[in-house]
């Protein structure tokens, strides 16, 4: 791995573990093994490097969701596969955790990949739920966009509950509760 | 407000805005107007003061939830009132945000109020959902504990989505989606 790559990957890890406010240029240099001069050769500063790291984490989150969304099964089965896919629930979401960072939220450039990723996710889930409704898999009374928002929230909130409890199964319980609500027999 | 009180309230605000990692003793002294000597007269250090602040925030979160849980209406109406009650969605949850703080999660003493608050909330919601099920308000096929976990996750994840979007209505959309799933006609 070249230095630029090591800097990005180290920043991704640190942002995930400690957030933007808790990640110093010195910590990035220490973890990546790159010197200060090298860091400022490749990036203009911490915001620039953080943006590269966040953009990559956001892309990975999309790719991994997209793999579930385009996998086998009906639309509802693919939504379920997305919710249930293996996650390190105690680590939390590398993109969602950035919403708790005041310095990220206050900077429109840094906030953009976070905002876009969740907008994309909500849109993608709503599309699949609309498909499920057309196929008679999902109750026609349910609004795809609002239901999609609820499911995206369950994932993000599931991480919060898992970390609060110190147990990954708190994430699984939230997801199973949501799927119970989503897939129970239609009321029509 | 006396100095001890000002220190606790200032720490609560800073923890809410910037988290534990992002809150320095100096920032607490600056916001509270208390000197260093005064701070260490009342508290042994940042962890001790943070614990007092977190314990109070956790108690307020319980009190405000309990007000909805014991309000008017059926069990399901009280759960809905809890989800819909007025919140500053863009500020996020003062207790939930602490789960993103590595130094809080790594310290069993600091993590305790966070863990206990969410355990209490899940238990309380599960009790109300069990009551709703007994009264025929809720589908008998739904598991109260898993459904409660899903609803608690929707609240926490709703904050994440609202902050990501920079719009409080993203919280409302997630809650309405969850209530749509919860209150649609029973399938039996």
TrEMBL record, chains A, B:
Q: What is this protein's record name?
A: DNA-binding transcriptional regulator, AcrR family
The organism's lineage is: Bacteria, Bacillati, Actinomycetota, Actinomycetes, Streptosporangiales
Provide the coiled-coil residue spans: none
**What InterPro entries does its record include?**
Homeodomain-like_sf, HTH_TetR, Tet_transcr_reg_TetR-rel_C_sf, TetR_C
Family matches, as Pfam families:
TetR_C_13, TetR_N
Tell me the ranges covered by the HTH tetR-type domain, including all copies: 1-61
Entry keyword Mitochondrion: no
Q: Name one GO molecular function term.
A: DNA binding
- Keyword Transcription listed: yes
Keywords for this protein? DNA-binding, Transcription, Transcription regulation
Where DNA binds (residue ranges)? 24-43
Source domain of life: Bacteria
